[in-house]
Amino acid sequence: MSEAAFPVVPARTRRPRLGYAMAAFAAVLWGINGAVSKVILASGLSSEHLAQLRSLGAAGGLFLVLVVIAPQRLRLTRRELPYLVVFGVAGLAFVQWFYFLAIHRLAIGVALLIEYLAPLLVALWARFVQHAPVRRRIWVALALALAGLALIVQLFGGGATLSTAGVLFALGGAVAYATYVLLAEHAVGGRDPVSVLGWGFLFASVFWAVISPWWTFPSHAVGVHAPLAWHLPIWALATWMIVFGTIVPFFLLVSALRHISATTAGIVAMLEPVAGALVAWAWLGESLNGVQLGGAAIVLAAIGLAQTAR
């Protein structure tokens, strides 16, 4: 798909500070959602069914918003169709599926550390495939952020037990996440973020309907009470996951790509493991030691450095 179908937003319309704020808020919501998703998975719902539920719920919510406020945005041209199908399946569907598979086998922090190789993949794509200039401080920021994440999850201190399958799933998530960000960066040039995500999640839902037909979904599972969730039923946690763990943060990140580059957005989104660690401490009783707090400080410094590379 050529860039003519999704033209780049003119520089004069960009508001970098707004883009940073959107990406950061999205990362915080995703950090909270990691703990919510792990609690749902612990109740017995499979990774495939959870990704299926998340995609269909997000598609339904986004299309409902569009039907009410701007039905004309639902129009889809033949040129856009293959692009948005790839965005929905290779980006949205796979990034969720691989993430759920990874956190089912790895600690959330370790899975996120591996998945957040995605910003490095985006920077490499921009530099060597698109031949775009990437400032030196972006590479420094990436190195600092990855080092900080390694400290948060205590990757080299014996604090993490690694599963080979979990590592491979997390690496697959990194590739899918990079694909999602790169495709979204171009898509928002010709479409509004709500319709981009609406069509993307719809095609993701179609993919899941083929892989796992809806009549096989264990509907009884959503009525049980989740462990470690104040006796909340799974459907309540799933609703939170769909609205505040999917629709809102994905909308924020895709909207941020109107104002900052995919590489920079990926670095700012590295706030997610920091937020996830804090939520795990507050909700699940997981403590943070001095090394982990130092890692969080390094990640924040890396994000600050990335924000100077405009």
Write a structural description.
By secondary structure, this protein is an all-alpha fold. It has one domain. Helices cover 69% and strands 0% of the residues. Helix 1 (16-42) packs across helix 11 (271-283), helix 2 runs antiparallel to helix 8 and helix 4 runs antiparallel to helix 11. The chain is globular and about 50 Å long. The two termini are 27 Å apart. Mean pLDDT is 80; it is low at 1-12.
Q: What labels would you give this structure?
A:
mainly alpha; 310 residues; 0% strand; 12 helices; single chain
Give a quick precis of the structure.
The chain is mainly alpha-helical and 310 residues long. It has helices spanning 16-42, 47-69, 80-103, 108-115, 118-128, 136-152, 164-187, 193-211, 234-256, 262-268, 271-283, 290-307.
Number of helices: 12
Strand tally is: 0
- The amount of helix comes to 55-70%
In the predicted model, the low-confidence regions spanning at least 5 consecutive residues are 1-12
Write the layout of secondary structure elements.
Layout: H1 16-42, H2 47-69, H3 80-103, H4 108-115, H5 118-128, H6 136-152, H7 164-187, H8 193-211, H9 234-256, H10 262-268, H11 271-283, H12 290-307
